[in-house]
């Protein structure tokens, strides 16, 4: 970004990094800071295809130790097994599912943080997955079927330039699909002796990541997994082995509250259902904790500044 003529201060505006600066290689960036960085980058570049362009540049070295671990695997089946166990090292708030059919491998995005940046996130993930797999397998071309849970954007030509005719919009979920036969493809860089060492380091980093999470981040992760069954504050405090009083104090020290975090997750879940399904508004309201759809409408407008109908129409 700074290489494109944008000052670092403008890129970091509104983040904690504006005060602390950016750490060295491997430094961890909080999820909220990353979301603000993306929003700043989209505004400064005025490039709607920024997610695709950045994803194309994410090669194996960009994935740090996990990328090195990928390279030591025997075949693509081992790579995907490793990826599904440790992808939180790349994106802690992302939730994925992996399934096999007779003919295909399917990676489904269950939850992507910050719905307002979902298009960027899906673009980044699709382009990065393509680039990473091509590098691992040593293939000049690789066919991935990309499904996106939103209408074709104005810059849809950029999708087709990158992925060819294997792009599908207005699908129920974001999915990446490819031929199951690829799982047997041997990696030219395979090194079983090193794999155990790299995997041990990945496990250590993942444990450190979980231990370093703020109470707010742990709360968000639990609430996202408990969609439709949101616990009360005392229940969630117990899930984190904290008393309600200590839990409130820890959140306050992080500048957060349980209600604010719960509302943030409700917005994420409601927005996903509004834009990716045709469920009635009354059903969506109930799923995010409202018995009365009119109360949900008022709350949603208060949270987002827009009505549910507007979000559904634009989705």
Automatic annotation (TrEMBL):
Give the InterPro entries listed for this entry. AraC-type_N, Homeodomain-like_sf, HTH_AraC, HTH_AraC-typ_CS
DNA-binding as a keyword of this entry, yes or no, is yes
GO MF entries:
DNA-binding transcription factor activity; transcription cis-regulatory region binding
Question: What SMART domains does the database record attribute to this sequence?
Answer: HTH_ARAC (SM00342)
Start and end of every HTH araC/xylS-type domain?
217-314
Question: Which ranges does the record mark as transmembrane?
Answer: none
Matching Pfam families, A to Z?
Arabinose_bd, HTH_18
UniProt keyword Transcription regulation present: yes
The alphabetical list of record keywords is:
DNA-binding, Transcription, Transcription regulation
Q: Enumerate the PANTHER family for this protein.
A: HTH-TYPE TRANSCRIPTIONAL REGULATOR GADX (PTHR47894), HTH-TYPE TRANSCRIPTIONAL REGULATOR VQSM (PTHR47894:SF1)
Protein known as: Ornithine utilization regulator
Top-level taxonomy: Bacteria, Pseudomonadati, Pseudomonadota, Gammaproteobacteria, Cellvibrionales
